[in-house]
Write a structure and sequence with these properties.
CATH architecture of the largest domain: Roll
Strand order of the largest sheet: 6-5-4-7-1-2-3-8-9
Largest sheet: 9 strands, mixed
Structural class: alpha+beta
Number of helices: 8
Helix content: 25-40%
Order of helices and strands: EEEHHEEEHEHEEHHHH
CATH class of the largest domain: Alpha Beta
CATH topology of the largest domain: Bifunctional nuclease domain
Number of domains: 2
Length: 218
């Protein structure tokens, strides 16, 4: 796990663009880099439930898996978000269980790596109190870098005038309904300004789409 970046859950917010969709916001330990992931309503509710916002009348499949795992001495050691393709995050869960040999009755630990939907993997990680990791490559592709509470272009961190210009333009450029064609027509400078305003207003789904468009132009 030394080559991976540990993440924590920063929060879950309702999409400002599409009904019934949520944005799971993860961040690395310093809080300087955040990773927005679009998830569906059921998984968002399940994660929120496990984080402590519990409704006694609700129960999720992830809770059943936790009960099943406890009975059979299965532990979830970690969740790893390891790949990003066309805006979709791919993850696996690392499980450890007791393996008993029939003859000698010897108990051994055995690990299994199982592919999982990222939102399901996170929902399980919260319940098992297991760490969540990702790779530097994914952070470079989809991570949003912050300085003093504002998103920055990590390759232009020292260009203060550029940052000021983005902040001045952001209030003019920002509005919720932005199609992919709208983003494609915008200049890189305007996209960075819009990215700043989207994050400040916690519209992380829009921020993720802008980041994807900026990466496409590289």
């Amino acid at each position: 796990m030394d080559q991976l970046i540990k993440l924590s859950i920063r929060g879950i917010s309702l999409s400002q663009i599409q009904s019934g969709i949520y944005v799971l916001l993860l961040e690395e330990e310093s809080g300087r880099i955040k990773l927005p992931i679009i998830i569906e309503s059921l998984q968002a509710q399940s994660i929120a439930y496990a984080l402590g916002k519990r409704d006694p009348s609700r129960s999720f499949t992830h809770d059943l898996f936790l009960s099943f795992a406890k009975v059979f001495h299965i532990r979830l050691k970690a969740v790893v978000i390891y790949k990003l393709v066309n805006g979709i995050f791919f993850s696996y869960i690392l499980l450890e269980g007791d393996f008993i040999e029939e003859e000698g009755k010897k108990i051994e630990k055995k690990e299994h790596k199982i592919d999982s939907k990222t939102s399901d993997a996170v929902a399980l990680a919260v319940r098992f109190q297991a760490p969540i990791y990702t790779t530097k490559e994914i952070f470079d592709k989809a991570g949003i870098y912050f300085e003093n509470g504002f998103p920055i272009d990590k390759e232009k961190e020292n260009d203060n005038s550029e940052t000021e210009t983005r902040m001045e333009n952001s209030s003019i450029l920002f509005f919720k309904e932005k199609s992919q064609k709208d983003l494609e027509k915008m200049t890189e400078k305007d996209l960075n300004a819009l990215l700043n305003h989207a994050v400040v207003n916690e519209c992380y789904e829009l921020a993720a789409r802008i980041k994807k468009e900026l990466d496409r132009r590289e």
